[in-house]
Amino acid sequence: MAEIKANKILLVEDEFNIAKLFVYNLTKAGYECEVASNGREGYEKTISYRPDLIISDVMMPEVDGYEFRKMLLQNDELKKIPFVFLTAKGEEDDILQGYDLEIEDYILKTSSPKIVLAKVSAILKTLEKERSKVVDEVSKAADSMGVKVVPEEFPVFEGFEIKHWHQPHKNVPGGDFIDYIKIDNDNIVVVLGDTMGKRWGAWYFAVAYAGYVRSATRFVLEATKDYKPSIILQKVNESVFKDERISDVFITLSIVIINKTDKTARYSGAGDLPLFLKTEKEVTPFLSNGLLLGFSESGEYQDHELKLESGNEIFLVTDGITEARNSNGEMFREEGFIDFLKSVPSNIDTLEALKLKMEEFTAGNYDDDVSVINIKVL
Amino acid sequence: MEIIEEVIDDIVVEIINLDRATLREAEDLKDKTTSKLNAGFNKFIIDLSNVEFIDSTFLGVIVGTLKKAVKNGGDLKLIGFQPNVRAMFELTRLFRVFETYPELQEAIRSFYKK
């Protein structure tokens, strides 16, 4: 820990009591700390003090946090210093505007000292390539914030077995997310998304997108009883497309609505890998037509309707599977995945077999998040 | 250099000299294209002839640049696809939104046709 405690932090905050509290906690944890009371002073101190990390308030007199950040971005040297926004409220507007300015993270002023220190430590350790400790502390912080991108439990849905396998890239929270939304007794929505990028930003956006999808789903479901995944996708796409602050973020999304009474699956996708249907005889990929979310206002989303029978299995996957590589650098590919599904007998748990296969293929070295959802008709 | 930038008239050409274009190099491309967009350029050509694999983060930067270029009245065109990269663009349905050309001169000419 000794080398971490020598790190220098510049805190830019105009509220004296908050600055005092942060300085107290940071110095107690062993960090060296300087304070500036607005963006202009912050900029001057950044030049003279050369901190390892900058934590800055947003609302400040003279030069606010956004302006301060923009000033730093103009300077090739200063813009490399990790930058964290301190926000008064957890509002998406603040947070998303912050990410647009290439910040590392944001901290709520109301966060407990434990979370603040975990985040600060995580960012600095990342720089020092001490990944293992970072993962542990950020995971703890994420847990205490109650933020999840993948449900801990599988949904219970009569007549079906729904489960998933999610392996974050190098155990760091990444851009994949999974969600299950039970609409009523008969219908459940299954969501798999992949946010482009693999670092903390992607993890944050995965959280934000999971929220977007949930809201859009509810909106669509309140307006109609004709449950169509393409309408949910279009709604999410419109919100994302119009939102300038996340214009750099692109996402693939697969949505499946399962109806247990008539045993159907309605599927629509945006830039995603195909849905794979495994029956006793064959494995069929269903490729959706839709564009990546947020790219064009009309995403041209279409629905596939699949009639299911007992024993059928549906697989949704992200590119962590198809682009996984073996020690020779060869990729698993979509064809490899289909061949694998074909090779698994119906009395074997396909998802468990896939985990073993991927472990063997990659020797545990994954290049990306790996996410698979498996829906089996009982 | 992994990414070589040239300016031909008012067109920015980014030559990606990488077998695998991934997260690690995506930042470099983003810095280059952002700086050119900020300087007022809106016409881009990305040469992928040497690229055997492109990951979603790198692809995200290309897509983001296209979106901004179009918004500023320009375009981004791609040249030189190897089979794997072509497959990636087909899979994500991005072939529908990018104009692609076999070689540089043709891509340059396409900017002045309209």
TrEMBL record, chain A:
Positions of post-translational 4-aspartylphosphate modification: D57
SUPFAM superfamilies for this protein: CheY-like, PP2C-like
Domain Response regulatory span(s) in chain numbering: 8-124
GO biological process, one term: phosphorelay signal transduction system
GO molecular function: phosphatase activity
Signal peptide range: none
Protein name: SpoIIE family protein phosphatase
Pfam families, sorted: Response_reg, SpoIIE
Keyword Hydrolase part of the UniProt annotation: yes
Keywords in alphabetical order: Hydrolase, Phosphoprotein
Domain of life of the source: Bacteria
TrEMBL record, chain B:
Record-linked PROSITE patterns: STAS
A GO term for molecular function: anti-sigma factor antagonist activity
InterPro entries per record: Anti-sigma_ant, STAS_dom, STAS_dom_sf
SUPFAM superfamilies membership: SpoIIaa-like (SSF52091)
Domain STAS, first and last residues per copy: 1-111
A Pfam family annotated for this UniProt entry: STAS
Family from the record: Belongs to the anti-sigma-factor antagonist family.
Record's protein name: Anti-sigma factor antagonist
